[in-house]
Design goal:
The complex is a heterodimer of chains A (518) and B (705). Chain A is built from 13 helices and 20 strands. Chain A is of the alpha+beta class. In chain B, a hairpin with a 3-residue loop joins strand 31 and strand 32. With 705 residues, chain B is of the alpha+beta class. The chains are: A alpha+beta (518), B alpha+beta (705).
Chain lengths: 518, 705
């Protein structure tokens, strides 16, 4: 764990930083605090700093915290999530009186170790893995809360209505709106109040009204339900619309209406369809969505009044601000060389893990990432049309560019001969602004311009020995965060972090964060 | 992982094949790099300097000879090119220096003043100083900015002004450039510039030195020395966002300087009048290098987007981009020995392409009205500097009849030219010329340029009339088969599409450059596009002549009356742009000459809009106040899709003729000599690639795609 010994940034260092920046140039509402290293937690500190200076992310976290404190999300059991700890940490930083100093992210690290066993030791870890885990964790917490919120509202509405018709309506609503299964909390909650739970379409709601009767019983209930329309929750709006459907329009549960074309938000494929792409050891795309969004298929697309809102609500349920900020979509285009069928498959991503080569630029690495490859020999493609394994061409193109583009350079490769993971210290240059070349023709924002806002740098010779630091951009100034230490960096100094060819101990950019300019 | 269309070659090549034959790496003088170990920088990468080579042909009493100046680490070497290519002999260094404390970053040999007794070389350093050494007498003649009071950031490029004995230009990482007159003694006095800018340009500002000082403004440094300084003559602030300059190049005619910047902009500026002729933006990232074609019609740039761009001086737009490198393009250079193009009149007749001289005829009126101090910019005063452009230039550069790479009046010839080959070339291209509506008898055009990159690759490229003029009409998006990215392109000139979009975007630009708007945001760059619009949407090649001439009429009329009448409104602007006229009016309104000096308030050029925005502080005193340290990122959204920066599918995409890995570490320089190509490697050594002997190999008639 060389290099992980913490340095204490005392008053002197703070003063030095202030002087370096200049008291007048110091951005008024900004705080630059180093994070103490508890032995091996530089992997964590570096990612935290990079994310803290990712303004959209920081804003959302602080906003969440504010909402938390205003009791919007309910306060039971929410204080001990990783997200909550992150909120406290960020809030702690921004509410410091001093402008510089050091903080100890004790709670966060403790919670991290509790939640993810693999981090619960003093070994060196992979910053990228932490990045994935953190986003995953936040996303799930937010999803849970959304569910709980909807359930809570549903119950509210249920209890506030008195007429039977409404009850029926409620049931039907819950019938339609059931999506997540195996959700303990929800079930628990539902059983408490005796209402039908959010269950899959094939199970019937448990209330007295005959579930088979899908007719709308009472239009007059629309009046009372419309009062709920004032609520800003999308759930209630949908309620209203549904009730306004009128007679005879029986909403069908159309099982066939699949979610083709519907983006599967927050979903990272756990398997790569291109076997030739190597996996990075640590990142396993942990971000698997347990709750399948295919449940949205229950929504009737023949339901003309409701569908849009209902569907939105469905996809909303799976969508969090993590998706909004980091998620993009790429299309895998497979072309069978025998029957010439082209198949497109969309997948979402929160970051891109790119292979690297010596003396290249990140632009080139991204091109290679998207390059056309052949599936042949052992890796032949199972063509549905040909119903056999055929040779195919496959390429990947980005369909939707995210707001924050996180690029993970695959610097740790498994070396067969040495039987362990080694670090590739290739020199990979990255510019301060970036456009992507590997977008689909119909990508809406293909020419998006990105600005570099942060870099997580790995220093050292291997994945098990090394140190992480972060470089961030704050108010047009570049800063280097090395655990406790914070230094100002000249833009020309970025050259130090491209990686040095011969030097095993080189500092090399590992995760690049680009923010879109629009 | 099988990559289609590319061979995964990790081997370093020592030869490569091209249409005219095989280039082979030559052994070079054995004792070239005395230590014989690769140069490794001590310390972090950001403190290292790029290994640089500059080669100039001078007349210093020996036979006409190419001299090489080469810096690596702390050392500078000066030697004759001929001694480099004699492998069995010691390399004779004519001068050699080792520096302490600072490292040399760039250099330039003064061709004009070279003589038996003295050869001046300007050297720039990491700490911002510029030293002038005499390699004949081995003396250090002068050091500008010795105490760093003028500028603290490193010198990224230094060059002598064309045809100047004493004036040089130095560019810095801060985005500033300085014009120095080394004949003036250097003092330690702090230079004070006029508050009001000498020239307020589109994206840049020029300040002139205050030479007459009042007692209150006389600087007195610690020595109690009250002497004012005569240097630098001018301070050029090329960017407000602190974006540095990577390099600049003077045009072959000597009038213009093209400045390549970290913010992705290439600005082509007339360095005596300080007017900007045109501007270009990279697709993304900074521009690291630029090079003028031998006739001055095209500039090729290389940048951090791994691309090379070909920019047309006359049309002021990017006409082609090239993808071949796997990393940043460190240097680009035209190969003047492999450029074929007709003389000026044929160029105009067949292709409608004016020459630089046509666009900017020299007028004697200019000669007198120079810079503020009237004693620099000698090139303008120089009586031998005629206005016919290339022919004179060639002669002045002492190219001998056989070896001159290009000449007026006939198609450029290679030293061992083969007329048979030329005819073959023209036959093959006849059909393609027909297809784009050109006269089949029009003479062939072929420009060759080379690029080297941080990927340790060398690429050679070629552009011919198909590319140069087709891009206006038919718009093939790609010339390659492996990169079909955006297949569909609208018909009609992309340039015109670009122009149209220019109009559109321009119309959104607030006329007043509202007081809140940051200087560099939509206002300026958006405005600029109008003035670029030479052809105003014309796509027909044959019409280009007329359009060019008509706009020339307007432009040249302007330049003729350039700086004489400060109240002259630019009546001439691109007629199609009503909005442009608004800018023009705005400009002239702004252009109140507060100091009563008449000259150099470049009023009239239509592509010269003035910033009318105030910075955040507002107020009259800061009306021109630009020196806002805070970076204001320009609204680049507006530049994409315009002539400044066409979209990827709006220009032709080139593929290199040759793309080979030639070293293990990044290549930093490329120079074309008559008999070989020289590449400079960051490891600290040079490579020589001998040109093929045409008699030995039979020329193949393939045309590049």
């Amino acid at each position: 764990m060389k290099g992980c010994l913490p340095n204490i940034m005392g008053a002197n260092a703070s003063a030095a930083l202030m002087k370096e920046i200049g008291p007048e140039q110091f951005p008024p509402n900004e705080r630059y605090f180093g994070l103490h290293n508890f032995g091996n937690t530089c992997y964590c500190n570096s990612v935290l700093q990079a994310l803290f200076f990712c303004q959209p992310f920081r804003d959302r976290v602080l906003q969440y915290r504010t909402q938390q404190h205003n009791g919007k999300h309910g306060s039971n059991g929410k204080k001990d999530t990783l997200l909550a700890c992150l909120c406290e940490l960020f809030y702690n930083i921004v509410s410091q009186k001093k402008k510089c100093g050091v903080l100890q992210p004790k709670k966060f690290v403790a919670r991290l170790r509790k939640e993810y066993e693999s981090f619960d030791n003093y070994m060196q870890h992979d910053a990228h893995e932490l990045f994935n885990c953190l986003l995953n964790s936040i996303h799930l917490v937010l999803i849970e809360e959304k569910k709980a919120e909807r359930e809570r509202k549903r119950l509210e509405m249920q209890s506030s209505t008195t007429s039977q018709g409404n009850g029926v309506k409620r049931e039907r609503l819950s019938f339609f709106r059931s999506k997540k299964k195996e959700d303990k909390d929800i079930h628990t909650l539902s059983s408490k109040v005796g209402a039908s739970s959010f269950v899959p379409s094939d199970t019937m709601p448990s209330t007295s009204a005959a579930p088979d009767s899908l007719e709308i019983q009472n239009i007059t209930s629309a009046g009372s339900s419309s009062s709920l329309a004032t609520s800003d929750s999308p759930a209630s709006t949908a309620d209203t619309n549904e009730s306004l459907m009128g007679n005879g329009q029986v909403p069908k549960v159309d099982q066939e209406s699949s979610d083709e074309g519907k983006p599967q938000n927050g979903h990272l494929s756990t398997e790569e369809s291109t076997p030739s792409k190597t996996f990075s050891f640590f990142s396993r795309n942990k971000f698997s969505k347990k709750a399948s969004s295919s449940k949205s298929s229950e929504l009737s697309s023949s339901n003309s009044n409701v569908p849009h809102l209902e569907e939105e609500d469905e996809s909303e349920a799976n969508n969090t601000w993590i998706n909004d900020i980091f998620q993009g979509t790429y299309t895998t285009i497979t072309r069978c060389l025998t029957c010439e069928t082209v198949k497109n498959k969309d997948e979402d991503f929160l970051d891109l893990s790119v292979d690297i080569e010596q003396n290249t630029s990140i632009t080139h690495c991204l091109r290679v990432f998207s390059n056309q490859q052949m599936l042949s020999g052992e890796h032949k493609y199972s063509c549905e049309v040909c119903r056999s394994k055929q040779e195919a061409q496959i390429q990947m193109r980005i369909k939707k560019l995210p707001t924050i583009l996180a690029l993970h350079l695959k610097r740790f490769k498994y070396c067969d001969t040495l039987n362990k993971y080694t670090k590739l210290t290739y020199r990979v240059v990255f510019p301060f602004d970036l456009r992507l070349f590997n977008t689909t023709d119909d990508a809406s924002n293909a020419e998006r311009l990105y600005d570099l806002i942060g870099v997580v740098v790995h220093c050292g010779s291997g994945p098990y020995r090394g140190h992480y630091v972060s470089i961030v951009k704050s108010h047009d100034m570049w800063l280097l965060f090395d655990d406790d230490n914070v230094e100002k960096l000249e833009p020309s100094g970025m050259e130090d972090f491209y990686g040095v060819t011969a030097d095993k101990n080189s500092e090399s950019g590992y995760i690049l964060f680009y923010q879109s300019r629009e | 992982m099988a990559l289609e269309g590319a061979s995964k070659d990790n081997d370093v090549k020592v030869r490569f094949n091209i249409r005219e034959g095989i280039y082979k790496q030559m052994p070079i003088s054995e004792y070239f790099y005395p230590k014989r170990v690769p140069y490794v920088n001590q310390g972090p990468a950001s403190t290292s300097t790029t290994v640089k080579t500059s080669i100039t042909r001078i007349d210093d009493g020996d036979e006409d000879c190419d001299r090489v100046c080469f810096t690596v680490g702390r050392e500078l070497f000066y030697f004759g090119y001929k001694s480099l290519v004699q492998p069995s002999q010691h390399l004779e260094f004519l001068d050699k220096r080792t520096y302490k404390g600072v490292q040399p970053t760039c250099h330039h040999i003064n061709k004009f003043s070279a003589s038996n007794e003295t050869v001046k070389v300007a050297v720039g350093f990491t700490a911002g100083q510029v030293q002038v050494i005499d390699v004949k007498t081995k003396q250090s003649l002068q050091i500008m900015n010795e105490d760093r009071s003028v500028e603290k950031s490193r010198v990224t490029c230094v060059k002598w002004l064309p045809e100047s004995e004493n004036v040089l230009l130095s560019a810095h990482a801060s985005g500033n450039m300085y014009t120095y007159d080394v004949s003036q003694p250097s003092t330690n006095a702090l230079p004070i510039f006029h508050t009001q800018p000498h020239i307020l340009g589109e994206g840049y500002t020029i300040y002139a030195l205050k030479t007459k000082t009042t007692s209150s403004s006389t600087s007195s440094n610690g020595n109690g020395n009250n002497a004012t300084t005569k240097n630098p003559l001018f301070k050029w602030i090329m960017a407000t966002d602190g974006s540095g300059i990577h390099t600049f190049q003077f045009s072959p005619c000597g009038r213009f300087v093209a400045v390549a910047m970290q913010n992705g902009y290439l600005r082509v500026i007339n360095h005596s009048t300080f007017e900007m002729h045109g501007c270009m933006k990279s697709y993304f990232g900074g521009l690291l290098s630029c090079s003028w074609s031998p006739d001055g019609r095209y500039i090729v740039t290389g940048g951090e987007d791994d691309l090379v761009n070909v920019w047309s001086f006359c049309e002021k737009c990017v006409i082609a981009r090239g993808y071949g490198h796997r990393s940043w393009v460190s240097e680009v250079s035209f190969d003047p020995f492999c450029c074929f193009y007709p003389n000026d009149s044929d160029m105009k007749m067949f292709y409608g392409m004016p020459s630089v001289a046509d666009l900017y005829p020299k007028h004697k009126a200019l000669a007198g009205q120079d810079c503020a101090n009237n004693n620099s910019c000698e090139n303008v005063d120089n009586p031998t500097h005629s206005s016919t452009g290339m022919g004179d230039f060639v002669q002045r550069n002492n190219f001998s009849e056989d070896s001159r790479p290009h000449c007026n009046g006939e198609v450029g010839l290679m030293p061992h030219s083969n007329m048979r080959r030329l005819r073959t070339y023209s036959n093959v291209s006849k059909f393609s010329r027909l297809s784009i509506g050109l006269d089949p008898c029009s003479p062939p055009i072929c420009y060759r340029f080379g690029s080297v990159g941080q990927d340790a690759h060398l690429c050679l490229w070629e552009i011919d009339e198909n590319i140069l003029f087709n891009s206006r009409k038919n718009r093939p998006t790609v010339l390659t088969t492996t990169q079909k990215r955006r297949p569909s392109v609208g018909s009609g000139g992309d340039c015109s599409a670009a122009y149209n979009s220019t109009t559109d975007s321009g119309s959104e630009v607030p006329v007043n450059g509202s007081s809140n708007s940051e200087y560099s945001s939509n206002g300026s760059y958006g405005q600029y596009h109008y003035y670029n619009n030479i052809s105003g949407g014309n796509i027909d090649v044959s019409q280009l002549v007329t359009t060019a001439q008509s706009s020339n009429a307007s432009n040249s009329g302007t330049s003729a009356t350039l700086n004489l009448q400060k109240d002259k409104k630019h009546s001439r602007q691109n007629a199609s742009n009503g909005v442009a006229s608004k800018f023009a009016t705005l400009g002239s309104h702004e252009r109140k000459n507060k100091e009563g000096k008449e000259h150099k308030r470049n009023l009239s050029l239509p592509h010269f809009s003035f910033r009318s925005t105030s910075n955040q502080n507002g107020g009259a005193s800061t009306k021109y106040g630009i020196l806002n340290k805070k970076a204001q990122p320009p609204q680049l959204i507006k530049t994409l899709g315009t002539t400044l920066c066409p979209k990827l599918d709006e220009t032709t995409l080139l593929e290199p003729l040759v793309c080979k890995k030639i070293a293990q570490s990044r290549i930093t320089g490329i120079n074309f000599m008559e008999d070989c190509i020289i590449t400079t490697c960051q490891d600290g050594y040079l490579q020589l690639w001998k040109r093929p002997n045409p008699r030995a190999t039979s020329p193949s008639p393939d045309k590049p795609k």
